[in-house]
Inverse folding.
């Protein structure tokens, strides 16, 4: 199964968080599974906040990219996933996230309109939900397509 | 003038976003100025979302670390800044942020209790506010000090 990020148009595959063409980036890969979208990611040792725990900015980044993939998942046509961008990001850090274990990120759409989707997400480490998030995704505006198109 | 991040205890100076000891990280530096805390940061070319624009996850990361510094700014004693961690992050992307110009991040505390501070922030590029954020910072819990202490 191909990741949703592998189905973005090539001009929009440079994202630092999930672009398959960004060799310096995180290259998050999200997969549709039933009504959810799921990704796994193992942070690197340098991705710490304080020793032993994952940097909150990385967690926000993972949630952000995964939400765009979740918004796109049900609108894939002809093996092309539409590119969404983030309008608003809300992340609640419920517990410190341990650095070391693989993280599981899950998302599902809670609201949908033609141009917008609201996505609810969790990050889980070793079976414990450490982060809850809600992200508003909008279809990429024409003003952002000028340089990429 | 020293940056607030230069005043964190050495055990807590490894943060990917702002730790002076994290050579792989962003090393954001925030400075108190009157009632505000200000940082400047120039994203690298690879920090893109789509070509021409800054990755939202990076913007969330900058806001996150800058908020912790803003929470600490008024509580520095004997050249040591207390370490806060993020409880909640809310980021509104008002406009796409152009990739290239130096960004200015400004924060100020809007609510304060002994263990908590709420920080309001903006990110500005070329004189235009592109991001507004609100971050809840809490003093680092004892459970996160075990490995760092």
């Amino acid at each position: 199964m191909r990741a949703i990020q592998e189905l973005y148009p090539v001009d929009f595959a440079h994202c630092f968080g999930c672009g398959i063409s960004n060799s310096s980036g995180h290259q998050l890969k999200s997969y549709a599974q039933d009504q959810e979208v799921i990704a796994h990611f193992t942070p690197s040792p340098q991705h710490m906040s304080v020793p032993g725990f994952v940097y909150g900015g990385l967690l926000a980044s993972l949630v952000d990219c995964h939400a765009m993939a979740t918004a796109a998942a049900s609108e894939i046509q002809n093996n092309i996933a539409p590119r969404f961008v983030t309008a608003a990001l809300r992340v609640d850090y419920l517990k410190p996230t341990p650095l070391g274990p693989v993280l599981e990120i899950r998302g599902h759409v809670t609201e949908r309109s033609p141009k917008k989707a609201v996505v609810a997400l969790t990050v889980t480490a070793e079976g414990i939900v450490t982060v809850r998030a809600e992200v508003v995704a909008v279809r990429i505006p024409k003003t952002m397509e000028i340089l990429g198109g």
Remarks:
- Residues 46 and 55 of chain A are 9 Å apart (CA to CA).
- Chain A has one helix and six strands.
- Helices of chain A lie at 56-73.
- The interface with chain B takes residues 11-12, 14-17, 22, 24-25, 46-53, 55-58, 60-62, 64-65, 83, 85-93, 96, 140-141, 143-148 of chain A (CB under 8 Å).
